[in-house]
């Protein structure tokens, strides 16, 4: 295809002609920022450079052995399953919500899909209201809303609130915009900050949502990775208005298995029906062997309990240690509560960065990749302004399987981080050295 017009070929003959064929909602999109960061890091690594992969938020831990075994046993499953999902899995998910987080959901209101990402997109497609997104936020919420033709209302947050939504700001937005249909997207423990809400903060948000009739899409994909194992779901405080999203990707280390879950409150069953109808016309059903295997994950077992406790202990060692190192190097960092992300602010180094010719977050990320081999994402990919100088670090570049084994035999202290959690420990060291050399 040339970019010059070919008069002998009617219709599509130039790149501009093709561009014009792309729907305006899709045209501004590029490949999801996190996947693009991984591709870039892989290219450099293939050229022989040492690259620390702090870009893509993939769990460092292996899929727990009993779940892998369950998949092996179910590899022969070949039938299309019901569009809402395997009944036994939906029952296991409903029981899981009750057992782990104490809120009731009927199996009839659970929908299984190929990743929570797909389900959240279909939800936004089916729901004709505004999508309210506190920023910073996971990279895909806003593009999904735009693809679905929804209007997005971003709600800024402040470092005083650990970059988490303040109930007052939400209340102000609802009053300013007046009565209308809205979904509020809440993600906690959150990507990119790694912070979470206290029960009191969730109760205040629930009160505002109830007052204004806001539906909450509660993205709890990192709920099991609360560092202290004390995740609280807003589903316990605002049962009637909360749709809970989770899946196997993060706490089960199975991102590539593509299994996600949405659980609707009984009052919103019709919305779940609409989503199932849209699913039936798009992906039909989620992979049968994966659904059969996932029953064991949601049913839980003592072995799975040990796996999760180990994952939390390791993250509870690595994350605060890394945050402290970055603070000593001059950055501002919210204390992590869960997931595997840090979102340091380079604001205290603004003058030094300017002297080095760096004035945006993307320039910091580019320079870090070039000079220190650190691949990470700029805060602007998460809805921050490019000159606000945040980066997102995914602290996942270590061998989770061997680290889990070692954690059962030796003490978890700082030397464990240096000796066993390489290369992430070296990456943090390199980042700190880069900051000090500015
Ligand atoms: C906050 C958040 N929600 C949802 C997802 C999507 O997860 P899934 O693999 O279930 O589609 C991710 C993945 O990175 C995420 O970070």
Instruction: Name the helicity range.
Output: 40-55%
Q: How would you write the strand order of the largest sheet?
A: 2-8-7-6-5-3-4
Secondary-structure class = alpha/beta
CATH architecture of the largest domain: 3-Layer(aba) Sandwich
* Largest β sheet strand count, sense and barrel closure: 7 strands, mixed
Bound molecules: pyridoxal-5'-phosphate
The CATH superfamily of the largest domain is identified as Type I PLP-dependent aspartate aminotransferase-like (Major domain)
Mean pLDDT: 93
Number of domains: 2
The helix-strand sequence is: HHEHHEHEHEHEHEEEHHHEHHEEEHHH
Q: If you consult CATH, what is the topology of the largest domain?
A: Aspartate Aminotransferase, domain 2
Poorly predicted parts: none
CA gyration radius, whole angstroms:
22 Å
CATH class of the largest domain: Alpha Beta
Percentage of residues in strands: 5-15%
Number of helices: 16
How would you sum up the global shape? globular
Distance between the termini: 46 Å
Total number of strands: 12
């Amino acid at each position: 295809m040339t970019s010059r017009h070919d008069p002998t070929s009617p219709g599509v003959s130039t790149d501009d002609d093709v561009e014009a064929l792309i729907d305006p909602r899709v045209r501004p999109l590029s490949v999801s920022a996190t996947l693009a960061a991984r591709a870039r890091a892989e290219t450099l690594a293939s050229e022989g450079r040492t690259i620390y992969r702090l870009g893509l938020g993939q769990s460092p831990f292996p899929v727990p052995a009993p779940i892998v075994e369950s998949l092996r046993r179910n590899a022969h499953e070949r039938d299309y399953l019901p569009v809402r999902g395997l009944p036994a899995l939906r029952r296991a998910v409903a029981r899981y919500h009750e057992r782990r987080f104490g809120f009731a959901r009927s199996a009839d209101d659970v929908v299984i899909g190929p990743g929570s990402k797909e389900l959240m997109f279909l939800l936004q497609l089916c729901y004709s209201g505004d999508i309210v997104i506190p920023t910073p936020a996971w990279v895909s919420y806003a593009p999904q809303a735009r693809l679905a033709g929804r209007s997005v209302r971003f709600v800024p947050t402040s470092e005083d609130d650990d970059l988490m939504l303040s109930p007052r700001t939400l209340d102000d937005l609802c009053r300013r915009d007046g009565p209308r249909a809205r979904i509020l997207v809440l993600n906690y423990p959150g990507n990119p900050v790694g912070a979470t809400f206290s029960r009191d903060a969730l109760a205040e948000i629930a009160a505002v949502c109830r007052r204004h009739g806001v539906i909450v899409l509660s993205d709890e994909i990192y709920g099991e990775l609360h560092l202290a194992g004390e995740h609280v779901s807003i589903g316990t405080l605002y049962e009637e208005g909360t749709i809970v999203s989770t899946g196997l990707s993060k706490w089960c280390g199975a991102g590539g298995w593509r299994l996600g879950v949405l659980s609707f409150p009984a009052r919103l069953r019709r919305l779940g029906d609409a989503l199932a109808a849209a699913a039936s016309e798009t992906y039909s059903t989620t992979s049968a062997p994966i659904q059969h295997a996932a029953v064991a994950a949601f049913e839980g077992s003592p072995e799975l309990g040990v796996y999760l406790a180990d994952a939390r202990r390791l993250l509870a060692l690595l994350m605060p240690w890394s945050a402290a190192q970055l603070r000593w190097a001059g950055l501002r960092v919210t204390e992590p509560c869960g997931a595997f992300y840090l979102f340091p602010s380079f604001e205290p180094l603004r003058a030094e960065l300017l002297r080095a010719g760096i004035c945006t977050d993307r320039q910091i990320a580019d320079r870090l990749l070039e000079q220190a081999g650190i691949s990470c994402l700029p805060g602007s990919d998460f809805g921050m302004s490019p000159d606000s100088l945040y980066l997102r670090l995914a602290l996942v570049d270590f061998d989770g399987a061997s680290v889990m084994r070692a954690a059962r035999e030796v003490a978890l202290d700082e030397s464990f981080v240096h000796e066993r959690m390489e290369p992430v420990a070296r990456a943090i060291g390199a980042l700190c050295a880069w900051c000090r050399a500015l």
